[in-house]
Amino acid sequence: MNLRQLRYVVATADHGTMTSAAQALYVAQPALSRAVRELERELGVELFARSGRGVVLTAVGEQVVRQARVALDAVEAIEGLSGGRSGGQGAELRIAATAALEPELTGRLLPRFARDQPAVRVRVIRCAGREAVAAALRAGRADLAVTDLPVPGDLAAHPFEQREVVLISPPGLRLRDPLPLTSLDGMRLVLPARGGALRSEIDALLARTGARPVPAVESDERGAWLGWVRAGMGSLLWYRSQLDDLDGLTVRSFMPPVTRLIGLVHAHRRLPPAARDFLAFAKETAREAKVRDHL
């Protein structure tokens, strides 16, 4: 038995279905279901019974959930004691990120965090993809990570930002707005270089749409992307929040919208004070951004 299994059982009891529980915890549904079944086998009891499209607690399941809540509350209280907190003085914080998300981390979050916590030494660990990020967390090489959600069930996830993929085009290009994804077929695009992590993200998106654009430029020089678009060499498929200086260019959303959920992730273990501080700071930053967007 472990805390992850208890969290999953409590979430399933609260949400009524394993699918809803997995969505609330930002983990894959098969991982949650597997963890619950493993706990049932270990205890030798059935915790949930099917009811329509959902599940309900059995009599013994109600007892287990009641005790699980007590245990989880106790763990949270113990973690909150943090007797060794020193305000982050002399601490090191290791944050893993994929190549596509590292600029978000180093360009927006870390400078602000450094102003609030100047004594914390932050080390960014660049990873080739989500699998490498998860491996770094499991091995203890990173305290936190910025990555796509959902993540495997043995990791804890905190949603941070819903990021929109948009099309940035030269002026005068006549296209619908919003744009159907099928319109990308045959379109000239400025693309990241082949073989890299950035290109893999775009290729995965294009594979889901079935569209086959024409590579006009292939380069990882992000600073030059918008210049090539302005020169009329092609359009750019990228994240709205990661581009500045769009004057003179046309930005179009897709229909249906193409979004990507970004989160802060860590292993199910007690975080060091600097990591907890960064997690709280990032959540507050996300809340402030949502307030600004709705003003």
Automatic annotation (TrEMBL):
One of its GO terms (cellular component) is cytosol. One of its GO terms (molecular function) is DNA binding. SUPFAM superfamilies: Periplasmic binding protein-like II, Winged helix' DNA-binding domain. The keyword Iron-sulfur does not apply. Belongs to the LysR transcriptional regulatory family. PANTHER family: HTH-TYPE TRANSCRIPTIONAL REGULATOR YBHD. This is DNA-binding transcriptional LysR family regulator. It comes from Actinomadura viridis. The lineage of its organism: Bacteria, Bacillati, Actinomycetota, Actinomycetes, Streptosporangiales.
